[in-house]
Design goal:
It contains five helices and five strands; from the N terminus they run βαααβββαβα. By secondary structure, it is of the alpha+beta class. A hairpin with a 2-residue loop joins strand 2 and strand 3 (63-75).
């Protein structure tokens, strides 16, 4: 069953600030030692405003429950643009509720609306749940 949610594109500093803890949770889940910079939200909103990043946030009952981000790149061999699903993360308490599928579909729709027909992503080989999901 899909949990009632609201997915929207991040457009403000407050939007970015709202997912800072989710970013930290994602880093921990991925077993990374990366430290989120103190000015992370400011960096991300600059990337969004310069059209280098699309950030989608899933809200459940008014709280950020997941997010996905998309960048674009160019395939040198063909000279075509493709979208890259840089991040897809759903908080522990909302996994299995359909948020991941809705977020990935929203990223694909963003790519399509930008005239991009290919979406690429990668996931660590140890993340069997993500591999099954994709």
């Amino acid at each position: 069953m899909i949990t009632p949610m609201n997915i929207r594109t991040a457009t403000t500093l407050d939007d970015c600030t709202a997912i800072t803890e989710l970013v930290r949770a994602h880093i921990s889940y991925e077993k990374s030692s990366t430290v989120v910079p103190d000015d992370w939200a400011e960096r991300i909103i600059r990337l969004i405003r310069s059209n280098r990043l699309v950030l989608l946030i899933a809200f459940v009952e008014g709280h950020a429950a997941g997010f996905a981000s998309m960048t674009t790149d160019v395939a040198t061999w063909t000279g075509t643009t493709f979208a890259h699903l840089d991040t897809l993360f759903v908080s522990d308490e909302h996994r299995g509720e359909g948020l991941g599928r809705v977020l990935i579909d929203a990223v694909a729709a963003q790519a399509h609306s930008a005239g991009i027909n290919e979406l690429q992503w990668q996931t660590p080989v140890w993340n069997e749940a993500a591999i099954r999901f994709y």
